[in-house]
């Protein structure tokens, strides 16, 4: 945003008097007409708790919308995680244009992907730690489950996936903090967090056996959280397509 927008909006976000969420990415569901916003976003995380919504229109411009403004309709949506999601409908809402243009959209999306990837690394590490604790203490046929080769291999694969998520998220975060270009690294981290994260939380639940299906078991929370982050990041094929287009465009620029 502009310096004035940052000075006005950031203090409330820091002290918690304002809560922001994002209706991203742009899929053509929201458009502008005479400076007003129209359209719908099927589900937005934390929308029912938000006071401000960051909306991307079809042209990938960013708008700040007050959740309680006239023309804003919020309908509760229940997802796999209890994160107060909702359906957002905009009918002639007067939003505030966020400074920066399409570049601001790209910057917000890359930062969000990096943050979600870092969060997924922690979710996966927690799921794996619980699985390890369970398999080394639970015995079957007189010996711990962890002594079975199949269990060891599944846990080892989950560990490697978790570290791949962690290292790619760290690289993207470091490049962001060092003011280096990192769109490709953010997409790489997003792909690992989506594809590998899904494998890890499934493995964590599977290694708990029947108790992993118990909704009251703590590992189930990791499973739901990991799957929800996977949904936020997008399927692996979409992320790889975007990464491929980005790399092809950068190669073409270098050649010219």
Please describe what this structure looks like:
This protein has 256 residues and is an alpha+beta fold. It has two domains: 3-99, Butyryl-CoA Dehydrogenase, subunit A, domain 2 (Beta Barrel), CATH 2.40.110.10; 103-255, Up-down Bundle (Butyryl-CoA Dehydrogenase, subunit A, domain 3), CATH 1.20.140.10. Helices cover 54% and strands 18% of the residues. The chain has helices at residues 3-15, 102-137, 149-177, 183-206, 218-233, 236-255; strands at 20-23, 30-33, 36-44, 52-56, 62-66, 72-76, 86-93, 96-97, 139-140, 143-144. The strands form three sheets. A four-stranded mixed beta sheet has the order 1-4-5-8. A hairpin with a 5-residue loop joins strand 4 and strand 5 (62-66). Helix 2 (102-137) runs antiparallel to helix 3 (149-177) and helix 4 runs antiparallel to helix 5.
Cα separation of the termini: 32 Å
Question: How are the strands of the largest sheet arranged?
Answer: 1-4-5-8
Number of helices: 6
SS-based class: alpha+beta
The percent range for strand residues is: 15-25%
The shape is globular
Q: What's the main sheet like?
A: 4 strands, mixed
Q: What is the CATH topology descriptor of the largest domain?
A: Butyryl-CoA Dehydrogenase, subunit A, domain 3
CATH class of the largest domain: Mainly Alpha
Say how many strands there are: 10
């Amino acid at each position: 945003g502009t310096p004035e927008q940052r000075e006005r909006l950031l203090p409330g976000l820091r002290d918690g008097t304002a809560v922001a969420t994002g209706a991203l990415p742009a899929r053509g569901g929201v458009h502008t007409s005479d400076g007003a916003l129209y359209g719908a976003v099927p589900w937005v995380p934390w929308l029912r708790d938000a006071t401000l919504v960051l909306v991307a229109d079809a042209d990938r411009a960013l708008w700040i919308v007050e959740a309680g403004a006239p023309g804003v309709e919020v309908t509760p949506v229940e997802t796999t995680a209890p994160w107060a999601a909702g359906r957002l409908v905009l009918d002639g809402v007067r939003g505030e244009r966020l400074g920066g243009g399409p570049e601001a959209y790209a910057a917000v999306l890359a930062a969000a992907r990096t943050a979600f990837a870092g969060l997924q690394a922690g979710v996966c590490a927690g799921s794996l730690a619980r699985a390890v604790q369970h398999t080394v203490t639970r015995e079957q046929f007189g010996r711990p489950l962890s002594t079975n080769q199949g269990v060891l291999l599944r846990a080892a694969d989950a560990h490697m996936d978790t570290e791949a998520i962690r290292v790619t998220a760290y690289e993207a975060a470091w490049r962001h903090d060092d003011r280096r270009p990192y769109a490709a690294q953010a997409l790489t981290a997003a792909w690992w967090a989506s594809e590998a994260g899904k494998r890890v939380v499934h493995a964590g639940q599977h290694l708990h056996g029947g108790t992993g299906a118990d909704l009251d078991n703590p590992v189930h929370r990791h499973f739901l959280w990991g799957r929800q982050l996977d949904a936020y990041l997008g399927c692996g094929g979409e992320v790889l397509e975007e990464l491929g287009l980005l790399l092809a465009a950068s190669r073409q620029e270098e050649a010219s």
